[in-house]
């Protein structure tokens, strides 16, 4: 396979960051895939499958994620969805993912190409649509994962006023399984209607991934999935 990241020719060069962001001083960033290589590595022929995988290596499919998030917490959820449920059951799902982009996102401490106001996203979302074997209903689940604590701990960004971020009001608030309406509020996206399995109220969001998650795994090692239960995610 070719793991060679490159600029997206469909997007103006001035509207995307390339290797310079990830090589900058204080950059503890992984190039976090939004769409995983494995998710699109399929086709009628091996050539088509390889082409699909290679298309995930445009910088427009990457976001700067602190390695502890990208290789452990984020990866564990991706692995659980893809391998432990979807592949095992031979299912087809729809998976949507992306960063939450806010005006108040913290600023990277390092200037890149003279730009001293590079904002780093702190929240990332995943939305899953699927059907169960025993009925014809369409189900959906949503997740938010955060890296602000890691960015501050590693001295990567300047501290910001967190009063606008409602999730930061709760202890250990870096990772949540949340209602779809919360993701829609943050992203300003509208997702199709479906039966929602997650029933907790957002007044007291259920923290699903705590500090000890992945502690037994070596950093960067591929995992079989999270060591916690995800409400409703039994496909």
Shape: globular
Q: Which structural category fits the helices and strands?
A: alpha+beta
Bin the helical content: 10-25%
Let me know the number of strands: 7
Radius of gyration: 18 Å
Topology at a glance:
Elements: H1 19-22, E1 29-33, H2 46-54, E2 62-66, H3 67-89, E3 94-100, E4 123-131, E5 138-146, H4 148-153, E6 175-178, H5 180-187, E7 195-196
Parallel strand pairs: 5-7
Antiparallel strand pairs: 1-2, 3-4, 4-5, 5-6
Description of the structure:
The chain is an alpha+beta fold and 235 residues long. The chain has a domain at 66-196. Helix content is 21%, strand content 17%. It has 5 helices and 7 strands. The strands form 2 sheets. Strands 3, 4, 5, 6 and 7 form a 5-stranded mixed beta sheet that branches. Strands 1-2 form a two-stranded antiparallel ribbon. Strand 4 and strand 5 (138-146) form a beta hairpin. The longest helix is centred in the N-terminal third of the chain and has 23 residues, at 67-89. It is globular.
């Amino acid at each position: 396979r070719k793991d060679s990241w490159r600029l997206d020719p469909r997007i103006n060069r001035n509207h995307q960051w390339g290797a310079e962001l990830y090589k900058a001083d204080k950059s503890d960033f992984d190039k976090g895939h939004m769409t995983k290589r494995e998710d699109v590595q399929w086709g009628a022929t091996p050539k088509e499958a390889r082409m699909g995988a290679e298309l995930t290596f445009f910088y427009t499919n990457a976001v700067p994620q602190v390695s502890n998030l990208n290789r452990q917490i984020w990866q564990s959820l991706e692995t659980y969805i893809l391998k432990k449920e979807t592949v095992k059951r031979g299912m087809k799902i729809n998976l949507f993912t992306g960063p939450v982009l806010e005006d108040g996102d913290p600023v990277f401490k390092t200037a890149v190409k003279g730009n001293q106001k590079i904002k780093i996203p702190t929240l990332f979302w995943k939305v899953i649509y699927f059907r169960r074997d025993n009925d014809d209903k369409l189900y959906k689940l949503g997740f938010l994962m955060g890296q602000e604590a890691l960015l501050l701990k590693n001295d990567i960004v300047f501290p910001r006023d967190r009063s606008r971020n409602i999730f930061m009001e709760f202890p250990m608030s870096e990772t949540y399984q949340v209602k779809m309406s919360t993701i829609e509020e943050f992203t300003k996206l509208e997702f199709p209607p479906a039966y929602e399995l997650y029933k907790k109220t957002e007044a007291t969001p259920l923290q699903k991934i705590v500090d000890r998650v992945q502690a037994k795994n070596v950093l960067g090692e591929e995992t079989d999935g999270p060591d916690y239960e995800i409400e409703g995610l039994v496909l």
